[in-house]
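Subject: two folds for Thursday's group meeting

Dear M.,

Sorry for the delay on this. The cluster queue was jammed most of the week, so I only got both jobs back this morning. I'm pasting them in the order they finished. Each block is the input sequence followed by the predicted structure tokens. Could you check whether the formatting survives your parser before we put anything on slides? The first protein is the one we discussed after the seminar.
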Amino acid sequence: MINSERYSRQILLPQVGTHGQEKLLSSKVLVIGSGGLGCPALQYLAAAGVGTIGICDFDNIELSNLHRQILFSTNDIGKPKAQIAKAKLQQLNPEINVIAHHLKLNNTNAIDLISDYDIVIDGTDNFETRYMINDACVLLKKPLVHGAVLKWQGQVAVFNVRMTEQNYSTNYRDLFPQPPDENAILSCNEAGVMGVLPGIIGLLQATETIKFIIGFGNLLTNQILTYNLLNHQQQIFVLDPNPNAHAHAPQSREEFEKFNYKSFCKIMTEAEKITPQKFATYLQDNSITIIDVRELNEEPAINNFIHTHIPLSTISTDISSLSYTGTVITFCNHGRRGQQAANILSKHFPEATFVNLEGGIMAWLKLEEQQA
């Protein structure tokens, strides 16, 4: 039974009414990732009265999350995101069903999980998972609401919506037939993001989801909306089908479960790592070479120890002028680019041993603060 007082303001809208509210209450939405995008989407879906909301996330809450993941608080640090998000949403709206899936999505569980829901919101931040979610939704014929953010810009699109009896709207593979070079695209962990931006994009994802459920308004199908926080410019680009983009996509559950998304996205195997504690002891060894692979003038500036500076973006072009033997340690802010640099260099200088600072220079600085 509809709680007319709780939903009174949206029921007043003729496009919603009691019929639209009933659709919301009977719908099932899966939000994959309860981070910067997922948090605002979850809050507004719960407030709108989406009857069943699934939250899929395997991470725990960290202090660095809080500037953009405002569903959480300082007291929640260290706790599972999915479980805490569920508790907060049930407080917001105890009349709906919230399901926490504290797990890492992969080839073997994605199909079964997504099949229980009507529509999926992708709040993840890496290409490997985005392709996997997209392919699962295509196989299951489930609509997918895409969102992505970086620095000051974001994008939103609605994929795989049934247009006719046989035809569906474009999907993620039409947008990116081939994964971008992992060296060229940084994550928010590496490049940063203004906290309000995922809030805006996550709200747009919730908006498109609600519009889809109610069946009113123009969805962002066969289109992609881009938003620039610095000047509030929004642009909508037409997204055309690309038949060639799907030639190598999995065509069945069996193919999906065997598909190597790491290989497809050209994700390199991890280089050997050293902990911040071990790194601190290496700083006393003058025979060790240390390389900062961050971009020039990237913060925080490091003046605590001797090192060279070779940005990851220029390593491949600088190879001919480099020479390494012995032990070489690479570092960036959080570890991802350091790993990539170590892998690249190890192929060209097999006589050297390349290791990556686990957690990047931020982990080492945190250790230094704790020991001060």
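Second protein, same layout:
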Amino acid sequence: MAKLIGRLAPSPTGAQHIGNARTFLAAWLSVRSRGGKVILRIEDIDSPRVKSWAVEQAIEDLQWLGLDWDEGPDMPAANSPFIQTQRIERYAASFQQLQRAEKVYPCDCSRSDVAAAASAPHDIANAPGNQNFELIYARTCYNKKVRDASVLSGKYSWRFRTEPSEIFFRDGFAGEQIAELQNQFGDFVIYKSDGLPSYQLAVVHDDHEMGVTEVLRGDDLIPSTFRQLAIYDFYGWEPPSFIHLPLVVGPDGRRLAKRHGDTRLSWLREQGVSAERLIGLLAKSLGWTDSLKEQSVADLLALYDLKRIPKEPFVFGEKELNRLLR
């Protein structure tokens, strides 16, 4: 059997919070409990939102939780570098394959153009835990060829040509997932107008090149999985197995964010909260313990069980915060 390889992939667009910690903990335990290898990768290509201080803080947060890794920015290996903005040339080479196959086309539509042309907002594949809607691109630029980019005067991005076919995958937690990519998602951006690859292309490229065999993340990313599987199919690469868990939400049912108060891991440390106390709360929320007993990540290795994780999102409110701050 191929070696199990998972990854922790924080995005330094801000501070890591309790919701991130819960997903990182589950991802790490899923791999370590079966003797697998863990990679740390910093996904920082979302340049307008990236915070310069957030990379170092994300690493500190993970270390505070007690999570470790075998390869990462601080542990160079054959697959280095592990920071996406240092891998731009690799993405460009992969993108050129898409261009040669005319699998992409240049699109100079603005956001307002896309909104005006879309007939109606579509639920993003009815993804569990996802409450957002997305405008499906009307393929205004579909007839453009790669060579047409040379005559475009303004900014333009590149869109992936989707096919009218169903994509299916069996999620390790959420079960069978199926979507008709073209109708439900449309031709999505794969290279942005700022000259950087989209999240979809970068993640597929990195997971393939780094040999990742399992991806555990929040179920808000189920829609991204369909897009990524289409990219895997183009290159003929074997995709990893996917596990999508329910998110941590606030009392209003929306994904945990600043509007729900301060849940940053760095802030919890400043308040004197121990990692063991937080892990104990997260372990209970994941169905592995019945009490709020303080735990270390090592304590949970024998308790990890995907089948015991609740199907509903974990609601984190004032009561849960007070338990941490007691």
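Two things I noticed about the second structure. The longest strand covers residues 166-171. The chain has two domains: 5-86+246-325, 102-199.

Cheers,
T.
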